[in-house]
Amino acid sequence: MVRHVNRGWVTGQRNINIKNYKNYGNKIVIKDIRHHKFRGDLGKSMFGVAGLIAPVLGILIDWQGKINEATRPNLASILGFIKENALYFYFILILCLVVGYILSRDGKRIQWTTLQTILDDLQSISYTSQETENDKHRVTLFQYKKWCWQRHKLNVFAWYKSHKSRKVNPGCGWLVPVLRSNDQGKNTKVLFAVTDSSDFSEGIVGRCWATKNTIALSELPKVIVTSASQQRQRYAKRCFLPQEYVDSALEKRKLLARSLFAIPVMANNGEQWGVIIWDSVSPTGINSLEAEKAYSAVMNTISHLTEDL
């Protein structure tokens, strides 16, 4: 069931210095399946080549004792060098085998690729109009992480202030973007804290996670860099965000979504895994009924795919 929110309100919100939001999450790169495929192919090549060289190296070491140094001094010298440094060569081969195996694990590559395809399909189904670029009408998958240091990194003072004002700290729980529909918008700094209190869980993504409810927001006010503080505050409250977040996004000339739709993602084992969110710059850009219907059709597939990611 969709929970349509026309007036969202964040209770207990305190003033936060905008400096805390200037680096709202240092760059987090969403998985690019093309790069993932390249790493997988590279891993397979490393694993295969190392597997072929290992027995050849053993043959060369064994052959070294059978070469007549008087008649074939150059070859004997090369084979002697190989034998003397055999330990180093085997160490390099073992390292290549381990790295190659890690990079070439096909299971997770297939899972991510399938999830990417699902997000692309959900995007094409769920939007009422796609006359503008794909990055203006997106579908993004967020994964829950217990720990995340990206927002303030090792700035202890900034972490102290965020914990004091909103109970946000590296171990409070975070929703981090891992996949996004199509090829644009892969580089993003957006991440949301989810605390024990839903009042302090950030954004529609955090509120969806905290309440385990599907949430739809539409006809959000148009907010631009010249918008008054009151209009910015109204937008922030409807989206469950501190106003400083909105101010920071506008300073970076980012377009703010005017319609949002979020659904909690459950893994096959019944545990909460993350949140999937649709966002559009159009005030009525998302067909929430079609989006929910489309998600219901692939919900079990997503639950199986995400279980061990």
Structure notes:
The protein has about 300 residues and is of the alpha+beta class. It folds into two domains: about 1-30 and about 105-305, 2-Layer Sandwich (Beta-Lactamase), CATH 3.30.450; about 35-105. It has ten helices and nine strands. The protein has helices at about 20, 35-65, 75-85, 85-105, 105-125, 155-165, 205-210, 230-240, 245-250, 290-305, and strands at about 1-5, 30, 135-145, 175-180, 185-190, 190-195, 215, 260-265, 270-280. A seven-stranded mixed beta sheet has the order 1-7-8-9-3-4-6, sandwiched between helices. β8 and β9 form a beta hairpin. The longest helix is centred in the N-terminal third of the chain and has 32 residues, at about 35-65. The radius of gyration is 26 Å and the shape is elongated. Residues about 1-25 have low confidence and may be disordered.
Kindly state the number of beta strands.
Answer: 9
Give me the CATH fold name of the largest domain: Beta-Lactamase
Strand percentage, roughly?
Answer: 5-15%
Average pLDDT level = 83
The CATH class of the largest domain: Alpha Beta
So, the CATH homologous superfamily of the largest domain? GAF domain
| CATH architecture level-2 label of the largest domain | 2-Layer Sandwich
Number of helices: 10
Gyration radius, to the nearest Å? 26 Å
Low-confidence stretches: 1-27
Question: Could you say how many structural domains there are in total?
Answer: 2
- Principal-axis shape equals elongated
